[in-house]
């Protein structure tokens, strides 16, 4: 089972919240191989009072998910 993990990444242009895919049983690294720090995790605001930064998705993480689903015949 997998879940999405958001973290603020100032290295991307423009700086944004980047969503990675992590295994629920081991959230220390994303599917793209990036080691994730719990202190860097962003919890999105549900009431729109949080910072207005754009969201992006990690292409390598999503590519790994696509490949796994294709191999499983989904």
How are the SSEs ordered, and which strands pair?
Elements: E1 2-9, E2 16-23, E3 26-30, E4 55-57, H1 59-71
Parallel strand pairs: 2-4
Antiparallel strand pairs: 1-2, 2-3
Q: What can you see in these coordinates?
A:
Helix content is 18%, strand content 32%. It is built from one helix and four strands. Strands 1, 2, 3 and 4 form a four-stranded mixed β-sheet that branches. The chain starts with a strand and ends with a helix. The model has no long low-confidence stretch (mean pLDDT 82).
Task: Note the main attributes of this structure.
74 residues, alpha+beta, 4-stranded mixed β-sheet, 1 helix
Q: Quick recap of the structure?
A:
The chain has 74 residues and is α+β, with helices and mostly antiparallel strands. The chain has one helix at residues 59-71, and strands at residues 2-9, 16-23, 26-30, 55-57.
Oligomer: single chain
Helix content: 10-25%
Tell the overall outline. globular
Number of helices: 1
